[in-house]
Amino acid sequence: DLDTLIVGPLDDLVSYNGQTFAFFIRFLNGTASARVTFKAYPGAHPIVTPSGPSEGIYFLQSSYLLLEGFEVNRATLHAVRFAESSNIEARNLWVHDTDGEDNDNLAGVYANVASNIEVHHSLIHDNYDRNNADTGGNKTENSRNVVLFGGGTARLHHNVIFQTPQITAQKTGGCITYKHSAADAGAVFEVAHNVFWNCYHPVIGSGTYGTRIHHNLILN
Fold it and tell me: Quick one: which of 64, 69, 170, 183 could link to 40 by a disulfide (CB 3.0–4.6 Å)?
């Protein structure tokens, strides 16, 4: 019956299925009227910074969750990840400076087979491969601030999303891509009321039907 969790300092890493995470949740399900909420304690600024090479926050096979008010920085590969989950809202996040191998679709926010995902009023930036070892040190399209695969409806709105390096820099990344088509009938991919800048290949990319891109400010 728990609908709100208060989380203290996170110093240890969790291993699951051969991967390492700073914060891992599986099989946690709220309801439409009582979501499970992870949020900053009033006046606090929770920061998730893995103590070693590790992903940040991972929600797996869960539903009706709210993530609010966290900073996630210096994660490896994925900072905030949703997989096989539904009805997830993430808001007022600060997600930045993720590093790792772009071959594995590095991203600040990564959603795979997830439906009814909403990310809004967040600051997401500088999530890209700093080495690009497999391409002679040159940037590729597989570093992004946000990437989505399959699943269903996803809405990203009222965010600030950018890369600090200029688009001509040797190492940088893109901003948002729905890489493979949604599987849910009638799914919508909406990107609206965001501010973007310095996004390399591309600012907003979509490989799914139901795409709606409107009221964004795109700079440089």
Answer: 69
Nearest to 194 by CA among 117, 119, 82: 119
N-term to C-term CA, the chain: 48
Closest CA to 35 of 85, 92, 93: 85
Instruction: Give average pLDDT by consecutive 10-residue segment, the chain, 220 residues.
Output: 48 81 93 93 89 92 96 97 98 98 96 98 98 94 96 97 97 96 95 98 95 98
Q: Which residues of 52-87 are buried (b: 16+ CB within 10 A; e: fewer)?
A: eebbbbbbbebbbbbbbbbbbbbbbbbbbbbbbbbb
Which residues does residue 15 pair with via DSSP β-bridges, in sequence order?
A: 20
User: Quick one: DSSP state of residue 41?
Assistant: P
Task: Find residue 212's DSSP bridge partners.
Answer: 190
Beta-strand relationship, 86-91 and 115-120: parallel
Cα separation of 220 and 215, whole Å? Answer: 17
